[in-house]
Amino acid sequence: MKLIVNGEEQTVRAETLIDLLAELEFEGEWLATAVNNDLVAAEERVGFRLTDGDRIEVLAPMQGG
User: Fold this and answer.
1) Residue 65 — pLDDT band, cuts 50, 70, 90?
2) How many domains is the chain partitioned into structurally?
3) Is residue 64 assigned to a domain?
4) CA atoms of 65 and 7, how far apart (whole Å)
5) Dist CA 51 CA 4 (whole Å)
6) Using one digit for the tens of pLDDT, what is the confidence trace for 42-64?
7) Domain containing 32 — which CATH number?
8) Is the pTM of this model over 0.85?
9) What is the structure's pLDDT at 4?
10) Which residue from 16, 41, 49, 64 has the least number of CB within 10 angstroms?
């Protein structure tokens, strides 16, 4: 399946959002995810099915000063 992840086209095997995060090695409970500009809560990722062409954003907090 082809997806756009953080602005880059990716070809992946994952069919759910949680599987996509694992496949692309995103880790951490602190991640924020959005699919096609809609936020997806952490507890919804397991059952959230992806479709070809979806746009996924994975956001992580940044440290700074």
Assistant:
1) low
2) 1
3) no
4) 27
5) 11
6) 999 999 999 999 999 999 776 66
7) 3.10.20.30
8) yes
9) 98
10) 64
Indicate whether 65 belongs to any domain.
Answer: no
Range of the domain at 54: 2-59
Which pLDDT score is estimated for 31? 92
Alpha carbons 17 and 56: distance in angstroms, whole number: 9
Amino acid identity of residue 15, one-letter, is: E
The two structure tokens encoding residue 61: 């907090």
User: How far is the C-alpha of 54 from the C-alpha of 31, rounded, in Å?
Assistant: 18
The answer to whether 53 and 2 are in contact (CB under 8 A) is yes
Q: What does each C-alpha distance from 1 to 16, 19, 28 come to in angstroms?
A: 11, 13, 24
Residue 4 carries which side chain, given as an amino acid letter? I
**In-domain check, residue 14:** yes
pLDDT value at position 30? Answer: 86
